[in-house]
Specification:
It is built from five helices and six strands; from the N terminus they run αββββααββαα. The chain is of the alpha+beta class. The chain has a six-stranded antiparallel sheet with strand order 1-2-3-4-6-5.
Length: 187
């Protein structure tokens, strides 16, 4: 595409839908530079959130649009999500963690009504140990969730909310309107 190519109406509608998402207060969602070589049109949001046990997570939600579609997309739009979160050591050794991580996404898509097809992705657990003069904790454990799916149209507001719900689940935020017992005691 050239600088003179008009933005497709479907892409404009999809971006506007994502921009209309207002996440819960604990979640900071903001536009970021989108990847330029994956599709002719792209838009991206970054996200940061911390949970009740100081669990930190960051993520990206990328919208790709190719008016001609691409192999494997099964459509002309594609959502790409990346989430990275710190884990405590006990949770990092849970053999069910990958399945639980994937369920955070599938349940969020279902709960928000984010219609999709061609869903695929990975859940990766990593552990790093520090040695020598490197500052920081001696060991860290992380979870990475990478996924992509094809929405049927540009009505992407539910997809944006699903992304926010995944971010909340990753850090252990309770559902909106629910207060954790520890939070009430400290307030």
């Amino acid at each position: 595409m050239t600088a003179m190519t008009p933005m497709p109406e479907l892409f404009r509608e999809a971006v506007a839908a994502l921009q209309s998402v207002r996440p819960r207060p604990e979640i900071r969602l903001e536009p970021m530079r989108a990847p330029q070589r994956l599709a002719p049109w792209s838009y991206a949001l970054s996200c940061e959130v911390s949970g009740p046990a100081d669990v930190l997570a960051s993520g990206r939600l990328v919208l790709l649009h190719d008016p001609h579609g691409q192999e494997g997309w099964d459509g002309v739009l594609r959502m790409v999500m990346y989430v990275r979160a710190e884990l405590d050591r006990e949770l990092a050794t849970d053999p069910f963690l990958p399945a639980v991580g994937w369920s955070w996404l599938t349940e969020a898509l279902d709960a928000t009504g984010a219609t999709h097809k061609a869903l695929g992705g990975t859940v990766t657990e990593t552990s790093s140990a520090r040695f020598g003069d490197i500052s920081g904790p001696s060991r860290t454990d992380d979870l990475e969730l990478r996924a992509s799916w094809t929405p049927p149209d540009g009505a992407l507001r539910p997809h944006g909310f699903a992304f926010c719900q995944v971010m909340a689940s990753v850090v252990g935020l309770p559902p909106v309107g629910v207060t954790l017992f520890e939070q009430r005691q400290n307030s």
